[in-house]
Fold these 3 entries.
Entry 1:
Amino acid sequence: MAGAKRGCLAVVAFVLVLMLALAAAGAWWWQQRGFADTALTPDAPSVVIASGDSFSTVLGKLREAGVDEGNDLQWQLLARQLDAAGKLKVGEYSLDPAPTPRELLQRMRQGKVIQHKVTIIEGWNIRQLRAALAKASPLEHKTTDLDDAALMAALGFPDQHPEGRFLPETYVYQRGDSDLDVLKRAHAAMEKELASAWESRADDLPLESPYQLLTLASIIEKETGLASERPQIAGVFARRLKMGMRLQTDPTVIYGIGSAYDGNIRKIHLSTDTPYNTYTRAGLTPTPIAMPSRDALRAAANPAPGDALYFVAVGDGSGAHEFSATYAEHTAAVARYLQRLRASRQAQQE
């Protein structure tokens, strides 16, 4: 009888211990789940995983970023649960808006790093492009001390002039990428678009090479105030080239002036001969004068038909031009433009 009682007590004790253990396990499970799915409260906007960082190192960086939620064991167990331990990818990860520990480790496991952006604007020249890249952060700057020739050599194209060689586009990069990485992508994108435009060019196009197409497209880009007019402007220049007429376009003159240009083009500029002065020299400029867009490349490859040989700004603020077939018509259009310009200035003074 006594033995039976002792047996019953042992069973009761075992059940109690088991219940306590289950209760403790349940409490821990709820605590772990609450930790894993509660948003963090970091002080820093991001954290960077470098090559060779251990999980302990990453945890240390999170602590430095102000993440004080959870203990190391909780983070380690969650990482194992998510199959993230030892598999976190290098890069910069956002902590703003604050993720949960589960979301953060999943991002790090999948390599969903912060994507930064830099935009090359249509019509920029190489000086403007390089200045924009120099300001881009956190882009690494490897070209600061390189001149244009050394830059192109670093890109693998030592015989190329840099002007016009980079496609205007928004490029996504991540921390650790350099300006050379962005330029390589922009150069490859321009090569692809230029090849496509050249392949689809009109049969009677007065151009001998893709580089001449790139050059003409850059001039069209700088002359265009209204995107829809690119094919018409291309048509004017194509007809002039066929007839042997000088292009007589101000943007080429301005490019030839270079950094000395103060925002005003004067008569002396138009008469001073430079390799880029299309008032004094026939044909295309020796290099492009800007970074042309896809649309400018396509317009240069397939100019709009017509008989216009001249154009001048309308002067109403729209960016539109008035196109003319004869010099007399053009002279009248210029007079109308100057009249609108004087009226606009007078209105501003009143």
Note: The chain has three domains: 39-114, 116-194, 204-349.
Entry 2:
Amino acid sequence: MRSSGKEAPQRPELLCPAGNLAALKVAIDNGADAVYVGFKNPTNARNFAGLNFTNEQISAGIRYAQSRGRQVHIAINTFAQAGRVSEWRASIDKAAEMGADAVLLADMGLLSYAAARHPALKLHLSVQGSATNFEAINFAYEMFGIKRAVLPRVLTLAQIEQVIQNTSVEIETFGFGSLCVMVEGRCILSSYATGQSPNTHGVCSPAAFVRWEPQNGRMNARLNGIMIDHFEEGERAGYPTLCKGRFNAQGEDYYALEEPTSLNVLAILPELVRMGVRSIKIEGRQRGPAYVGEVTRILRAAIDAAMKADYTVKPMWSEVLDKMSEGQQHTLGAYSRPWK
């Protein structure tokens, strides 16, 4: 449990995505305190073609980061499949052997294996572990000795603060990137529509099931035959995701669950610092080095500014991040619920 003293707030870590070695170097060069990466195998929830790291590339990335006083976290954040558990264990072993600063795990069996086999390896509970309260986090600490937990993007600021006040585990929250409106680790929309779960395939809308169909001057977007959205000629088209589709509800076509938009915490950074959030995470391992560099640069400047009493959001920061946002718009998501 946190101390109730009045210690000066600690500057949170800026944790940035890296889908390849070039993105890792750009993140480090633009001020990331740490980066998170994944192997080129199914243990990684972003195991997409053209992304991720060979063993040699991760080793090179770790050397590059650690020689500059930064860290590399390796995401082994899918759930081990029956009869193939050795693949996930081998990735944990490799991460420890390479000298990774931490591994992100969601599977309880893998957490148990890592804690027993590599007691010196820092274990972070992945957002896919779906821990939304301090009881769940403290359980993972007592059972596996986790050092940090990544909170799903469904908690209000008050709920995040309650978690922090009731655990000694470091808390990591998302600060920028595509917004998941479900509780990560529990969503079954993709499984229902395609038979592929984000917990095993790492994506809400697997590319093999996405279809773009022109019809009478507009573009229809489907996921495994299910109409997700349609776009008029010249209208900006978002990637078809079930929870961000337009549906007919009570006779009206609109974004019934969530609009395509990105999370952006610039406006509440001082509040996250005050609460004691230990790490602010940028989403986007599937994005290129240009995205990583720009977003890292802005968040680095903003976090540093948030440590001072006269913090204000610079218009230039918002302009740059809006261009990088899904739908070129941003939201505070669940962090701000003014109707409560």
Note: Residues 189-255 form one domain.
Entry 3:
Amino acid sequence: MKIVLSGFYGLGNTGDEAILKAIVDNLRSELDNPDITVFSLSPEKTSQEHKVKSVYRGWRHENKQKVKALREADLLISGGGGLLQDTYPTKFLFGPLPYYLLIVFLAKLCGAKVMFFSQGIGPVTSTWGKILMKVFANMANFVTVRDQYSKDYLHSLGVKRPETVVTADIVFAFQGTEDTSAYDSLGLDGSERIVAVAPRPWFEQEEEYIEKLAWTLDRLIEQRSVTPVFVPMEPPYDTKVSKRIIEKMEHGDKTKLLGDHFTPNQFYQFIGKADVTIALRLHALIFSALSNVPHIGLSYDRKVESFLKRSGMWKHSFTLEEFNREELLESALYSLDNSVEVKQMMEPNVEALRQEAKRNVYLLKEKFGGLK
């Protein structure tokens, strides 16, 4: 089967690169020698890392190659991740939402089937964005979404023609390999209690949450002698936020900051060595769940809340707009002091999510496996 992948690939976001690795690895595990082409902003790097064909994703050049790839393809996989949203400005045909939907339209013109794969939907708030969704998203042949909220939201936008099935984020089917590069880079001696911290920039809430998080980390250092390690999932943006948090801390000299050159697998392997994770980044939380590491989310988006409810950690987590530092400290202390109990609670939830993630590919085989 010839497959084209369209997503937020080749832009250096660890979560999206983890999605790409998980999709490619699981397609190869379940399909007979799939021929995979990825639309990427860094096609040479993507091709080298994943042993796939790759075409430049933007409209500036390689448009003939994109059309050729779609004409030859049996299936376009759009996703995974939160592609279909207009949080960032959408102006006519410019912006993430028009881009991904135009790729879908182009695929249909070229004769390929289309699957929205393990997607999180929304928010789509602009009138133009809603029109685009109703027109172009209904062209898909089949849809899987990573939570019930996304399915309901998709239907509320008038996207009802393709069958839609709730599964889980494909990163729950991530196939990691042992690699201690990230951990070794920090010069730790193995005795530390690590709190992995994965922040991100976020509009008007940024300054307030930075101060609260800095205070919380200081108290954890004082009360439990932890070593906070910042994990920049999307450099350089997360690196800059991490440094601002460290500057606000009284004990910033007792923190560590991972370099921004590590692969998704290396970040995943590092988070697996943490005692607790505190994160805004969804895929840092998913990496934690996969490694059975207690995790506390600061939810800036419905996708984070939806995941935390499924992992069982929402009662220990908070919305970014409403949390206070004392409650965050209490939650972190509880997770550190009762890790065995927390892990036992999480384990069956995470295993269920792992099986649901794999179901994305099983459903693809069921719906499109007859394509040659």
Note: The CA atoms of residues 182 and 262 lie 7 Å apart.
